[in-house]
Every structure is written in C-alpha cells, then in structure tokens.
Automatic annotation (TrEMBL):
InterPro entries: 4-hydroxybenzoyl-CoA_TE, HotDog_dom_sf. PANTHER family: 4-HYDROXYBENZOYL-COA THIOESTERASE FAMILY MEMBER (PTHR31793), ACYL-COA THIOESTER HYDROLASE YBGC (PTHR31793:SF37). Pfam families: 4HBT_2. Keywords: Hydrolase. It comes from Marinomonas foliarum. This is Acyl-CoA thioesterase. The keyword NAD does not apply.
C-alpha cells in the first residue's frame, strides 16, 4: 500500500523537563505525517475540503507503543503507510525511527467523513480514485 517518509527535528518546545519528547507531541507528529501521506499521493486537504466537499478523515482509534525516547535536537524519520482501506475507513501505521532504531509505533483508524444536511458528521465512501492511490505501491 502507499507509503511516505519524512524527517522531523525534535524542537525544544516538544520536550518535557527531562529533555525527552512529551508523549502527546508524538500524536501531533503522526497527525502531520497522515497529512503528508495524503500530500505525497497528490491529494491535499484543501482539495478534499474545497473540491470534494468532505470534512476530511477524523480519528476513531489510535494506539502507540514507545520503545526508545527521543530528545531535543534529535533528527528522526517517520515512515507512514496505509495498512487497510475499507469502504469509508482506513488504517495507517506510523513508525518513528531515531538513529536507526524503532522508537515509537502508532496505528490509527480514520473515517472519511462529511457533514449531512443537518450538520452532523457522517461517514462517506472514499472516492474510487483516492482509494486506488491508497492501495497503490507509491
């Protein structure tokens, strides 16, 4: 399935007083990595919202395991890939590597969503062309 890789430098504001990444910051990195995954496929959030008139892909489940801390100044690599693509939902795995070692692994389940006439958030079928890109080996 489609995958992407990006580099992140750990900033001072990402860290706690012990000089390691404060764990909620990892979820911000992974959320940005999900956006980067779609951008790498040529599907921007602006396109999803403005052209497709879709809200986006809210999170319905996320889980992480932490194996090795990352510290201020570290340059890490985040590898992201689709793990499953359903009718209206999809899974993503993010792996954060620090100095070649797996430091954090996160899985996400997201739902392709829109607002109905009443303004409620509802699942929507992933468009066929986007689903095809998600399933490709990009």
């Amino acid at each position: 399935m489609f995958n992407n890789e990006r580099q992140v430098q750990i900033e001072w504001g990402d860290c706690d007083p012990a000089d390691i990444v404060f764990y909620p910051r990892y979820f911000a990195y992974f959320d940005a990595s999900t956006g980067a995954l779609f951008e790498a496929m040529g599907v921007s959030l602006r396109y999803i919202r403005d052209v497709l008139k879709t809200v986006g892909f809210p999170m319905v489940d996320t889980r992480s395991q932490f194996f090795k801390p990352s510290k201020y100044g570290d340059k890490v690599t985040i590898k992201s890939e689709f793990t499953e693509v359903g009718r209206a939902s999809f899974g993503i795995r993010h792996q954060l590597f620090n100095d070649g070692d797996l430091a954090v692994e996160c899985t996400e389940k997201r739902v392709w969503a829109c607002l109905n006439a009443e303004g409620d958030l509802k699942a929507k079928t992933i468009p066929d062309d986007i689903r095809a890109k998600m399933l490709s080996h990009g």
